[in-house]
Amino acid sequence: MFDDNLVNNFRDKNILDTALTHRSWVNEHAKQRESNERLEFLGDAILEFIVSKEIFQRFPDKEEGYLTALRANLVNTVNLSQVALKLDLGSKIFLSKGEEETGGRTNSSIMADTVEAIIGALFIDSGLEKAENFVFKYLLSGIDEKLGQPLKDPKSRLQEYVQSKGFPAPKYEVVDESGPDHDKKFIIQVLVNNEEWGRGEGKNKSEAAQNAASKALEKVS
Question: Which residues pair with 178 in a beta bridge?
Fold first, then answer.
């Protein structure tokens, strides 16, 4: 269910509508309002600032590389799209009919971009404190859980492992692609030194590749 508390955080409901407006909707409704792309641009920068400041202060003994990896682990597309699911943003985004018919309301990239746009909109509407409250509630509240997991994604860890063994970089190849546009399934294999090390399945190529890397890491662990 859509979080009404989010609506109540806005003094100007029009800016929330803009944050929820995908460019595809604008193409079908010319001159009604702009898309959320400018707010997304701003929100991306504000999100990075808020998270950077928090982890810089929380971990005074950690080096830059650790902080960079932790930040990336917190603000990636997967995490942002999960925030969108919690807020049920998919039901409220303004999409074109075509985008909706091809699964736009569950598209992880669209969901993540919309969360960034909302952060930008909160900043414009009410200032940094409201944007910080949103980020702390929906993203930074899970930081302790992230600390118990590998900070780098499977592809990055596999790359480092392969290089440490003197092999060339892993190659990822699509083995199979099936399903309608709104519900695709990809199977990708990862090759190391021309040998298959693992296969992974996912709703998009990126997810399938990460799962393939995970399988490869299981093989060598």
Answer: 185
